[in-house]
């Protein structure tokens, strides 16, 4: 069950990243984050009311608040790093966030077997290669590397925090709701600050562009929510080390989605990375 839910997480995160990447070509990145999370809040709020999840409020929700604060900050750092580029360096480095939940899992007593340790190593290498790293001296600003590492640490921290936010399914609904409300508050504050500094909140074409993109924005927000939920379940069902690595295969999904939808050709190094990630998955699932 751990492998199943963790792989579902990688699928959902990969599709959410792909959809978000497409949207940011037309709409400012912070606006995509805020609007998609507002839509997720509306859906999650309905679920919380329908299931009575609010009755399971506990001090564990502070983990959800922490995840809600760290998530937008990590995403902003990641977008800034992508702007500085090159993407072939930034994207693979961003996946190094898996080190955080894996380290937490080892600290709390997870002891994967030999095959699983091998699977972790192979899968992480595969994920890094699947991003298509630049290997031929592409110029990389030090600031881009630092921002990417900050983003990776943030992404990994969100995984570790959300796994601790609840121990029940209905409690998880409430935790995800709290996380998304915090996302909206932090992201909204960042968007306001950006506008005050002269940035844009609306795309060229005005509000109608956002209205036309609402279904896609809703998909991105809800896929991200669902991914957090399936990851939390995976981390509770089995070793966090295994759940974290399998959930971090999402760059492979994003690359394959770009190949299937946008007809982007996978570079040889990306194809090799996808293959290694698959081998690592098999080792983790059977170890």
Give a short summary of the structure.
The protein has helices at residues 2-23, 29-51, 61-84, 87-94, 99-107, 114-130, 142-163, 169-196, 207-212, 214-237, 240-247, 250-261, 268-286. The chain is mainly alpha-helical and 287 residues long.
- Radius of gyration based on Cα positions: 18 Å
Helix content: over 70%
How would you describe the shape? Answer: globular
Sheet bearing the most strands, described?
A: none
- Oligomeric state, counting identical vs distinct chains: single chain
The ordered H/E elements are HHHHHHHHHHHHH
Average of per-residue pLDDT values: 83
Number of continuous helical runs: 13
Instruction: Give the distance, in angstroms, between the N- and C-terminal Cα atoms.
Output: 14 Å
Low-confidence stretches: none
The total of beta strands comes to: 0
| Proportion of residues in β-strands | under 5%
Derived from helix and strand composition plus strand pairing, the structural class reads mainly alpha
């Amino acid at each position: 069950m751990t492998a199943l839910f963790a792989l579902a997480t990688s699928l959902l995160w990969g599709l959410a990243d792909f959809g978000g990447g497409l949207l940011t070509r037309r709409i400012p990145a912070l606006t995509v984050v805020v609007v998609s999370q507002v839509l997720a809040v509306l859906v999650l709020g309905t679920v919380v009311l329908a299931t009575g999840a609010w009755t399971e409020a506990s001090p564990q929700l502070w983990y959800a608040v922490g995840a809600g604060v760290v998530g937008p900050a990590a995403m902003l750092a990641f977008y800034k790093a992508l702007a500085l580029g090159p993407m072939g360096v930034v994207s693979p480095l961003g996946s190094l966030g898996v080190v955080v939940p894996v380290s937490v899992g080892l600290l709390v007593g997870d002891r994967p077997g030999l095959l699983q340790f091998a699977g972790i190593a192979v899968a992480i290498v595969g994920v890094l290669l699947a991003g298509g790293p630049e290997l031929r001296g592409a110029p990389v600003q030090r600031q881009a590397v630092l921002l990417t590492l900050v983003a990776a640490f943030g992404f990994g921290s969100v995984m570790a925090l959300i796994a601790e936010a609840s121990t029940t399914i209905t409690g998880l609904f409430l935790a995800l709701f709290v996380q998304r409300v915090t996302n909206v508050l932090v992201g909204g504050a960042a968007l306001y600050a950006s506008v005050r500094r002269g940035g844009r909140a609306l795309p060229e074409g005005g509000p109608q562009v956002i209205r036309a993109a609402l279904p896609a924005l809703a998909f991105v927000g809800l896929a991200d929510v669902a991914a957090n939920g399936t990851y939390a379940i995976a981390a509770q069902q089995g070793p966090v080390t295994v759940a974290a690595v399998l959930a971090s295969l999402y760059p492979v999904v994003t690359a394959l989605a770009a190949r299937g939808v946008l007809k982007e050709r996978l570079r040889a190094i990306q194809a090799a990375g996808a293959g290694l990630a698959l081998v690592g998955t098999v080792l983790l699932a059977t170890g």
